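Sample entry was shown:
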Amino acid sequence: MEDNGNVVRIEDNGTTSLPPVRLPSAHMALLVLLARRRKLRRLEASRQKRLWIHPVIRMKQEKGHFAMLYADLRRCPEKFQEFIQMSTSAFDGLLDLLRPQLTMQQTLLRRCISPEQRLLITLRFLSTGETYSSLHQLFHVGKSTISGIVRTTCELIFQNLRPSVMPTLTPELWLQVAEGFESKASFPNCIGAVDGKHLRVHQPPHSGSKSFNNKKYFSVVLMAVADTKYKFLAIDVGAYDSTGEARVMEASQIKQKMLHDESLPASKTLPGTTQQVPFVMVSDEAYSVTLCQLRPFPRKGLDTRRRVFNYRLSRARRYIECTFGILIKKWKICGSSIQLDVATVDAVVKACCILHNYVLDHDGPDADAEASTASLGTAINWQAAQPDDSGLDVRDIFADYFMTPEGSVPWQTACVSGTA
């Protein structure tokens, strides 16, 4: 059937259909040409954005910090230590330990980054807290490459150095720690000072307000035990909790070790007495009193006996505060806002604690270690937990002992009264 010159097809069911529209060949050729031109433009744009090696990165062998300053810094030990907070001998010892795992395979396409540069980038990041963008401009290494270098090197530092600088504590090592607290802090039967710090971090994804603390920022909790040499005996990183901070210590590995560790030494008599007293750790008022952990008496209604005990306990507890202060002063990434994912934050903080012990062993403490209290960190403001009756009895025993001639120390009364 025809309708005004157009052929109309009538189907068997009574419906009609028109034939497909056929464009002239000139129009078809134009559409093909436009499609091809758009495809060529996309290819050119992708070629301009994607480079095999960026010109800035290609210059790392000639103009990067490692190529231009590394040899000069090694000739100036003081400047080298200022650059990465570590002496050349300590750096060389750490490099020799990590070199097999930091050495990558060379290829015909590009040269790999040397172990020296990988370790230098990581230590510079930990000691200054600089961003990946800043390190990219300094070392002429890609930001994604720096991210992988930092995380991998921090994990290797923790795995390789922990057995030597933070070993598993034995009864002999516990007794050595107790001797240090008795001689330097005049607190017998003390095997460590325990405390925690909030380290500012970027909000973890899908965390809501879980890691939002009462200081109005997101943080990760670092729990630690320190000795009188300002070294970490044990650490626990990665506890995110803001609704009940007291539960962080209760659920930490440090608390479980204190309760169930069979390596803790047995009870020992206090000097000048015949009374058996268990070994304890000292903490602030945020923690609960248990058989192996002591905290100060409440601040209200203190008599002379309780003031003396709080003064003596603070003499022993200041070592963990100084340890945190030295850590944050030397490894400034812990004192800044860490803009990394959760897994990398844990690796970075653990590596800083291990490097803290490593540097103390090789380079010794700083001259101002005593003055480096934890003013750069943020103490955990916890609610007081319920005490244990057995812990209260142990605290009373220490409080009575400090009032005896055998347990008192010079200037004790003057320091408590505030006249010293």
Q: What stands out?
A: The CA atoms of residues 269 and 276 lie 4 Å apart. The longest strand covers residues 190-200. The two ends are 119 Å apart (CA to CA).
